[in-house]
Amino acid sequence: MRTDRRTTILWWVIAAQLLLAVGTTLAGWPQPILNVVLLVVVVAMHALRRYTLMSFAVFAAITFVVSNVYENLSILTGFPFGDYYYSDNLGLKLFLVPLVIAPAYFATGYFSWQIAHILLGVTGARPRGRDVFLVPLIASFVMVMWDLIMDPNAATAGGSWIWEDGGGYFGVPLVNFAGWFLCVYTIFQLFALYLARRGPAAIRPEADGLGDAYRYQAIVPYVSVALVLTSRFLTREDGVVTDPAGQQWQLADLGETTMLVSVFTMYFVALLSALLVSRTRAI
């Protein structure tokens, strides 16, 4: 199988992003903003081989608008994520939400969308029939796996956002994950309906002919996200953190739990996806 120049360049960019993820993991000091920027670059290079520029822009717009609306709404009213607010750790904000949050949704959401295609065996460039609803559903589960690992680290341990009443999952409330599912499902379902309505005009003519390398290139960045999120286990942090409700949590327990959950969620899904791609090729 011949590897074209765009595929080679994309692999190098992904390798750089993965190297950053591994490096920050081993050093114990993740750089979320830089990592998100590189992830967005990978998304753009990957997505524009399958989708038209208009479809890419629509997915970006849907993600940015929906995520920002839901986040600001929850900060103001408690719906759908619960009562929380952002600290100044993540830099400049759009209204009440840091600017980096929407690109993070966009990048990880895109990889979750692609992995959902692999898990469901949807090899076409756009979902059709019942897959218009199944792909968003599965992509939402894959996406929430990210938050399941991220939130305790970034919120309770990192203080990037603050849960005012704490919660049972290392200071994070259960309602947060229900809100996340609603938010990302809204994003994916709107995009799926857009693709269904636009039909072939939403994708590039060569999109259905993209090979296995293209699918692997969506899996590796998803793994890199998991690597960054499991850094607390690898760096063996000690100490105690207290959430706003007064509950104390051991950082070592948080790191160990994060690693355990990630192995059986994000890492498992990535492994299963890679095996499915390989198995499809073998058949």
From TrEMBL:
UniProt KW Iron-sulfur keyword: no
A Pfam family this chain is assigned to: Caroten_synth
Keyword Membrane attached: yes
Segments passing through the bilayer: 9-26, 32-48, 53-70, 90-111, 132-149, 169-195, 216-234, 259-277
Keywords assigned: Membrane, Transmembrane, Transmembrane helix
Domain of life: Bacteria
InterPro entries: CruF-like
Protein name: Membrane protein
Organism: Catenuloplanes nepalensis
Taxonomic lineage from the root: Bacteria, Bacillati, Actinomycetota, Actinomycetes, Micromonosporales
